[in-house]
Amino acid sequence: MVRWFFLLFYVGFSTVQSAQADTVKLTSLLWPPYAGYQLVQEGASVAVARAAFAQMDQQLIVDFYPWTRAIKLAAMPSSDYIGYFPEYYFETDKFIFSKPIGIGPLGIVEQKSHPISWLHLTDLNRYTLGVVKDYVNTDSLDLMIASGNQPVEAATSDEQNIRKVAAGRIDGAVIDINVLHYLLKQPHLQPLADKLQVNRQLIANKQLYVAFRNTEEGRRWRDMFDQGLAKLDIESIMGDLLFQEEALNH
């Protein structure tokens, strides 16, 4: 009986370990239409990431937090999370990045009555721009901000920046254009849509990534993820999900 008990215990324990080994946990933020528990398939970026892991017979669990907390949780050595997303590439020792999981157009939201005129990035130094705390923008823009050449006001969300632009408290705000379009279709922000527009010039088309913790385990998951990602039509998955969200918000 004792032997059978330990055998059953071992089999049960092995099954639990196997289930855990087939599951990966990442953090994300509410960043529609790319990520959010309220979205179809939890967002376009989540759909791509989940499909990539599924190609490798792995299950993805995504938990949503404010952005700063999402990054901190993913960076903790003792965390259940092995990374976070969607993120732009930046130089760091804490994380390693997957192959791109999609592309997001980065631009500026401005008042229709007071458009921002710029040709070179340094021309933006004449204006005060809104940014979201702890968001990566572009290397050049972030360098101007860090050096103090670019006047900015940091907010806790894109929504807060949209409201500040509409009220004339800042000249414009750096934002992903798909995020802007999604937010301006929401009932509580829709009244602001007539006041706002996208600046005629994009800052960049930014590739999106999953950031894995820079450890042996993180590298193993990153390599597995990239293998699964290579089997997908990313553009098709992203396009379908963005279209569905667009249709739901009309």
Describe this structure in words.
The longest helix is centred in the N-terminal third of the chain and has 20 residues, at 2-21. Strands 1, 2, 3, 4, 5, 6, 7, 8, 9 and 10 form a 10-stranded mixed sheet that branches. Helix 2 packs across helix 7 (216-229). Helix 2 links the parallel strand 1 (23-28) and strand 2. The chain is α/β, with parallel strands linked by helices and 250 residues long. Helix content is 38%, strand content 22%. The chain has 2 domains: 2-103 and 206-248, 3-Layer(aba) Sandwich (D-Maltodextrin-Binding Protein, domain 2); 104-205, D-Maltodextrin-Binding Protein, domain 2 (3-Layer(aba) Sandwich). The protein has helices at 2-21, 44-55, 67-75, 139-147, 158-166, 177-184, 216-229, 234-248; strands at 23-28, 59-64, 83-87, 95-97, 102-111, 129-132, 152-155, 172-176, 196-198, 204-213.
SSE inventory with pairings:
Blueprint: H1 2-21, E1 23-28, H2 44-55, E2 59-64, H3 67-75, E3 83-87, E4 95-97, E5 102-111, E6 129-132, H4 139-147, E7 152-155, H5 158-166, E8 172-176, H6 177-184, E9 196-198, E10 204-213, H7 216-229, H8 234-248
Parallel strand pairs: 1-2, 1-3, 6-7, 6-8
Antiparallel strand pairs: 3-10, 4-10, 5-8, 5-9, 5-10
Helix pairs in contact: 2-7, 2-8
Short précis:
The chain is built from eight helices and ten strands. It is α/β, with parallel strands linked by helices and 250 residues long. Helix 2 (44-55) links the parallel strand 1 (23-28) and strand 2.
For the structure shown, list the relevant keywords.
alpha/beta; D-Maltodextrin-Binding Protein, domain 2; globular; disordered N terminus; Transporter substrate-binding domain-containing protein; signal
